Structures are given as C-alpha cells and as structure tokens.
C-alpha cells in the first residue's frame, strides 16, 4: 500500500542499509537499472522488471533470469501491475541470494 522513492545517500553503507526498508524494487524502464538491480538482489529484495525490445530494456530480464527469478519479469505494463500484487514482496521467492542479505543470517 506504499510507494516510497528513496533519497540519495552519501555513503555505500547508507545505500545498502536503506534496502532493509524495501520489500519490493521496481526496475526502471526503458533503461534498466543494472547496478541497482544487482544491489537489490544482493540485499535479498526481489525486483519487478518490464521486458522491452532493445538491449537496454532487457538487462534486468537477463539478470533476473540468471538468478532464477523469471517469474518477476513482465511483458506488458498490465502484467507488471498484476505481478506486484501477486508477489507481495518476498513471498515465495528463492531469496536471499547471498548470506547476510536482508533475509539471511545478517538480518
């Protein structure tokens, strides 16, 4: 029920600490957020991504596919909206991807 835009953080530590507040990240479109997608996944936060036609709008798709999260990739805006409601954050997703991510031992 809440959409929050994260502010800029001056340090990497603050950047990664902010992920403890995040249940679900939205990939940018049409230019996917390669580093931020990897950061979110590293911290155990699933990322919803909209697949486009060109390379720059398919980077997130490739990243998510490679970590076994193809189910959070949508082919249309309508499908993306539906995925957000279905996923409800981390429910049913194979996370964290690393020990110490939000859902791991470091929590």
Largest sheet: 3 strands, parallel
Strand content: 5-15%
Low-confidence blocks of residues: 87-92, 103-107
Shape: globular
Structural class: mainly alpha
Q: Averaged pLDDT, please?
A: 77
Q: Give me the strand/helix succession.
A: HEHEHEH
Radius of gyration: 13 Å
Q: Biggest sheet: strands side by side, in what order?
A: 1-2-3
Q: State the helix count.
A: 4
Counting DSSP E segments of at least 2 residues, the number of strands comes to 3
In whole angstroms, how far apart are the ends?
24 Å
- Helicity, in percent? 25-40%
TL;DR?
This protein is mostly helical. The longest helix has 11 residues.
Could you please describe the fold and organization of this structure?
- The chain has 107 residues and is mainly alpha-helical.
- The protein is built from four helices and three strands, in the order αβαβαβα.
- The chain has helices at residues 12-18, 34-42, 59-66, 77-87; strands spanning 25-26, 47-50, 73-74.
- It has a three-stranded parallel beta sheet.
- Strand 1, helix 2 (34-42) and strand 2 form a beta-alpha-beta unit.
- The protein is globular and about 35 Å long.
Detail the topology: elements first, then pairings:
Blueprint: H1 12-18, E1 25-26, H2 34-42, E2 47-50, H3 59-66, E3 73-74, H4 77-87
Parallel strand pairs: 1-2, 2-3
Primary descriptors:
single chain, 107 residues, mainly alpha, three-stranded parallel beta sheet, 4 helices, 7% strand, globular
